Amino acid sequence: MPKFQVYKDAAGKYRFRLRADNNKIVAVGEAYEQYAGCINGIKSIQRNFKAPVEDITVEGKRFSNPKVQVYKDNAGKFRFHLYARNGEIIADSSEGYETKDACFNGIDVVGQSGDAEIKDLTESEEATAEKTHDASPIMSAVTKTPQSIEMSKPEVITMDKEDEILAELKKISAALEKAPPPTPPKGFVNEFKDFLSKYKIFGLAVAFILALYAGILIQALVKDFIIPLLGLAIPGMANLATYAVGVMSQSFGIGDFLVALITFIIVALIVFVIVKVAKKWHIE
Description:
Elements: E1 3-8, E2 14-19, E3 25-28, H1 35-47, E4 53-55, E5 67-72, E6 78-83, E7 89-93, H2 100-110, E8 117-120, H3 125-132, E9 138-139, E10 146-147, H4 153-176, H5 188-198, H6 201-233, E11 244-247, E12 250-253, H7 255-280
Parallel strand pairs: 1-8, 4-5
Antiparallel strand pairs: 1-2, 2-3, 3-7, 5-6, 6-7, 9-10, 11-12
């Protein structure tokens, strides 16, 4: 029967680990500020130890929470997360496995933890003695960690060093490993909502509508205000829209093109100013 052990890491936070029959650590929990939170994490595992296993390394069925999720880390090794019903990760595999079968063996140990013993390694020497009336485990003078009667001091010191190394390796692994891709939604309606959210369709629609009417507004500004204003300074510019060029007895109307060109330049300038202001105000 596997067993849970509650202990304090090097940062003084409460953690738990799940040990198999061979004393190998199979899964570890997150860091908790309070002892009660750490125990709640263990209880959550014991409530969800029969959760379905979802393998995202291959195409296949996806499950809602709670579930055990198998994935590959950046080193290409197999690992697993145990998700609670609320979607939070309550335990991770303690190491990366070379083969998927070995990873599933670790998951099998988690599946046997429903009635596993919870051993508290955080109690002080006085509290332990008070509870057990001198039948308490021997305390290590170096680490202040309870020892079982059959466990020697060097073994306890080795365990504590192992815990500290494991905690540091877990931090490094969490920083390096790529988060598993989110589970795609199921059902046409949910997929449609995800599509609208992922591609920000409503934002694009609003931007398109505003750009369309802003373009019409600027075009009217150029044609009905700026061009006549230029006509006051430059004779003939007021009739720019009807301007034509004659080549080899052929007349080419380029007035509309020139108006459109001036409109484009003014639109580009206005957009440039808006983008600069948005960056200055830290607006996305």
